[in-house]
Every structure is written in C-alpha cells, then in structure tokens.
Amino acid sequence: MAREISAGGVVVRRMAQKWWIAAIEPQKEAPAGPAPTKQKSQKVILALPKGLVDPGEKPEQTARREVQEETGLEASLVTKLTDIKYVYVRTWGDQQRVFKIVSFYLLRYRGGRMDDVAPAMRMEVQRALWLPLEEAPQKLAYRGEKEVVRLAQRYLDAHPEL
Question: Which phi and psi (to 5°) does residue 6 adopt?
Fold first, then answer.
C-alpha cells in the first residue's frame, strides 16, 4: 500500500464579532464514460486546504504554503491541532490504495485576498471561501476535517487572547 504525508490548515479570522475559517471547494473530477443526458444536482463539497509535504519541507511549512496556494491567504502558525489517518483509493492513474496521514495546524489570517488563486491551481480548487466557524462542522464534507475544526473551536474557546 502506498503512503502519503500531507499537511493542511484551519485558517481563522475574526470578523463581525465571530470566528470564520477558510475552506475550499475542490474541482470535481470528470465522470468516466459518456456525458449524462440529465443534469443531477450535485452536492457542493467543502474541505480544508491541504497538500503533500514536499521533500525537505516541514509539515507546518506545507500547511502555510497549501493555504496560500489554494485560498490566496497568508497565515501564521498558532499550534498543531492533530493528525488524521485514513485509507483511500486513487481515482486517477493506478487505482492504488493509499494510507494517508494529514497533519493539521491552526493558522491565524495575516493577509491576502480570499480566492485569489493562481490559474494553475484552478485545476485543483474551484473556489475558496470564508465559513463561520460554528457552521463549519456541518458544512465540511469529510468526517476527519469536521473533527479538526471542532478541535480548532475548542482551542479558540480556551485561548480568548487570540
């Protein structure tokens, strides 16, 4: 089984007396086979920005880089939140099963404009957006990422000085 090590970020920003987080809507993969005759309404998938750790890069550096590439935002490290582990099957190329570990970090917004994403990144990211933190666990698509956001919420509750 292949292994992948990734890192991602929960970018928080205080606006209008509440916390918001940065989320992305990944590009949808084109379905195999002929185009469907009827358009089905497809559920919007929202996720946290994340990506593979490059050789020589520390996971916290990866988290900041992926956040910048996928959302257009610059953020500073607050703390590590957790690692999530799961197995998935690649839907491209070799269809191989992959054991993946993703380290997630809490990051504080420092600058940049949401969804100011390079054209090359549009292959991966359809759009980036702000979500109210309290709504994020219901709106994010992946169970592990929902728990990561709950950890971020607990951290912020315990650290009002942020």
Answer: -130, 170
Domain that holds residue 48: 2-28+44-158
One-letter amino acid of 76: S
Q: What is the C-alpha to C-alpha distance for residues 157 and 153, in angstroms, rounded to an integer?
A: 6
pLDDT tens digits, 29-78: 644 434 444 444 568 899 999 999 999 999 999 999 999 999 999 999 99
How far apart CA 44 and CA 129 sit, in angstroms, is 13
CA 21, CA 15: separation in Å to the nearest integer?
10
List the one residue out of 69, 66, 23, 63 whose CA is nearest residue 45.
Answer: 23
Q: Pick the closest to residue 104 from 66, 71, 69 (CA basis).
A: 66
Mean pLDDT in residue range 138-142: 96
| pTM to 2 decimal places | 0.89
The DSSP result for 49-67, as a single string, is: -EEEPPTT--HHHHHHHHH
How many domains is the chain partitioned into structurally?
1
